[in-house]
Write a structure and sequence with these properties.
With 199 residues, the chain is α+β, with helices and mostly antiparallel strands. 46% of the residues lie in helices and 7% in strands. A hairpin with a 5-residue loop joins β2 and β3.
């Protein structure tokens, strides 16, 4: 089997192939380089030197499912707050999805409020005066998350457990996820969303 350089292919393009000449095959290798041969290469197709070579389409990975429609409204604000605090915006989106499903007026039975479901005492601790204001809510919730990151040496599982159950509960259980079904499910859901997996 013979292979030719791109330069030779260009030369071939300027010369008509004689009648009865064998077919020429071409494909792109994994580095994007054109490979031409007188025998079929893997993934090659017949090559006509008189026409512009157009490689066969490369199969594309499936496009991941988009965020919920409600997320588009709050994405710019979430991205802004994530940048202010040096936090991955995907993590904030995962937390907001599980906490409030992007409802800025959400209220829990425990009194948590807003997009990140911040407890009023925690909001006050991190400078929020109105937790139903989306920007204040996101800033307070994210500041708390950053504080938890320092407290638990960046351990995402413990950070999320503490965000849900409070840092005191995590400490009381030996710096482990407390044995509460709600907290364990919360950690699993947020982690799965953050890493792009379905629940």
């Amino acid at each position: 089997m013979r292979r030719w350089s791109v330069g030779l292919v260009v030369a071939l393009a300027a010369t008509a192939l004689p009648a009865g000449a064998s077919q020429v095959f071409a494909t792109l290798d994994r580095n994007g380089q054109l490979q031409v041969s007188d025998a079929p290469l893997a993934g090659a197709k017949a090559f006509d030197p008189h026409r512009t070579y157009v490689p066969a389409p490369v199969p594309r990975a499936p496009i991941p499912a988009s965020r919920p429609k409600a997320a588009s409204r709050w994405s710019p604000l979430i991205d802004q707050v994530a940048a202010e605090h040096g936090v991955d915006a995907r993590l904030l989106h995962a937390i907001v999805t599980v906490e409030s499903a992007y409802d800025p007026q959400a209220r829990s039975h425990a009194g948590a409020l807003g997009l990140m479901q911040v407890i009023p005492a925690t909001g006050k601790r991190f400078g929020a005066k109105d937790l139903l204001d989306p920007l204040q809510n996101l800033r307070a919730g994210t500041a708390y998350l950053v504080w938890l990151k320092r407290r638990f040496d960046g351990d995402l599982t413990l950070m999320l457990a503490a965000y849900n159950a409070g840092e005191g509960a995590v400490q009381r259980h030996g710096n482990r996820v407390p044995p509460f079904n709600e907290t364990r499910q919360y950690v699993r859901k947020v982690t799965a969303l953050y890493h792009g997996r379905s629940n």
